[in-house]
Every structure is written in structure tokens, then in C-alpha cells.
Amino acid sequence: MSEQKLTSNPRGIPSSPFVERVEDYVSPEEPVEVVLKKFQEAISKYKFMEINLLQRRKVLEEKIPEIEKTIAVVDLLTEKKETQEPLYTDFELNDTLYAKAKIEASDSVYLWLGANVMLEYTCEEAKELLTSKLETAKTSRKNTLEDLEFLRSQITTMEVNTARVYNWDVKQRRILREQQQASGSMSVQQFGRALGILGAIFLAHSAYSTYEHLAYVKAVDEADTSVPIEIAIECLTSAFVALLGVVLSAETFRQIDMKYEIQKMTIDTIDTKPSFVTFNHRHIKTTPNK
Fold it and tell me: Its principal location (predicted)?
């Protein structure tokens, strides 16, 4: 695989490279199957990080409104402290069960910092702490949204890379298959030419043998001018071999045969309507299905 300097976003999530030339990533040491497996592993890692960020975003979207409501309550308590007025509210005893409560003006509040952890703060300290936590939560939500967008972009890039490598592999396999077919076709053609030449040589030898035989018959003044069966068989065999070589080596013959097969396939594909066969005493009549 081609070595590339990979960058990352501010939170350290690595960016995915874009495959411009598949040849730079595929090699005998790393065939297509290995490259595709690595791409799938990278996509799985990106999706795993995406799931974690989605959960974090959900937590932050629930946490930020709670902090804002807590700040509003602290502001209300600060206002009541300045006017020395008590605060009347509904205190929750249980689910759907509330009781009226009177809260005297006070300079301190109690904040839950975690599970079973509560600390006392002054109103000013509580607001400062809550404001800091609110800013941190909003910044974290912003970074989470940016990371989610970045991850979606990287996942898309890796999916495109996977498609490019797969299509390249399909194309290379098709080219290799066509080359093998062309090589096989050329071998048949060369064999046909050699067979034709051999048949022509045998045919020439048979013709010469026939000529010698007829010359001998004429020289001895024999009345029988028929060709011996051995020479006739040799002539026919040589002619057949030569004709077979011409047929095998003829490019035009293969093209005509291919066109015939294509036309036959086209006709068979078009004429796919079933027919109903009716019997009428002395003949059979076929009626196309409309």
C-alpha cells in the first residue's frame, strides 16, 4: 500500500486517504482482498466512534438544559436574598406527589456534584461553578457535532475507496479473461493454419503420386487408367485436412458464427410468448398467446 501522511482533526481522529490510483494500494504482497479487508476494518472503527459520539451528544443535550435551569434557580435565590422574601415552591416527595414548601432567604445553596455527593456553595460560587460547567458542556457539544460530521465524511470516503478498489478488481479480471480468450482463439487460428499447410503438402504429394501413376500407365500402354485406391484415399484425406485447416484459421468464419449465435440469442429472447397447441383431427395448429 502506498505510504501517505495521514492527518487528523483537533481531537485526534485520523482522516482517511482517498484512493486516486488503485495501483498504489494493490500489490502482490497486499492483494485486493487484503486492501478491502483493511478498508472494512477502518469503516468499522469509524462507525464505532460515531456510536460513542452519538451517545455523548445525547447526554450533553440532556445535561445542558438542566444546568441552565439550575442557574435560573440560583439567580432566583439570589434575588430573594436581596429582598429578604421567602420562596414558595412545590417540593416533590415522590412521583406525582408534591407538597408546598417555604424556603427562607439564604446565602448558600447545595449542589449535587455526582452520585451521593453534595456540597454547599454561596450563591455567587454556585453560579460561577454552574456557568463554567455550562460553557464546558456547550464546547463539548460543539466539538462532538464537529467530530460526528468529520466521521461521516471519513466513512463516506472509505466507502468510495472500497467501491473504487472493487470496481478496479472487476475490470482487471475482465481484461485478464478477454486476454485469455484472445490467446486461446489465436492458438486455434495458428493450429488451423498449420493444419492447412500440412494438408496442402499432403495434397500436393497425392497429386504428384497421381501424376506419376498416370505417366507410368501411359508409358506401358495399359488400357486401365484408373487411380489406385491408396492414392485416392490419400488425395481425399489430404483435401479434408487442408479444408479443415482453412476453416479453423478463417477469422471470417468465426465472426459469422458469432453473429449467428447473437442473432439466435436475440430471437430466442424476443420470442418468449407461450403458445397454445390445439389438435384438429389431421393436423396440429399452434396459436400464439396474445
Answer: membrane
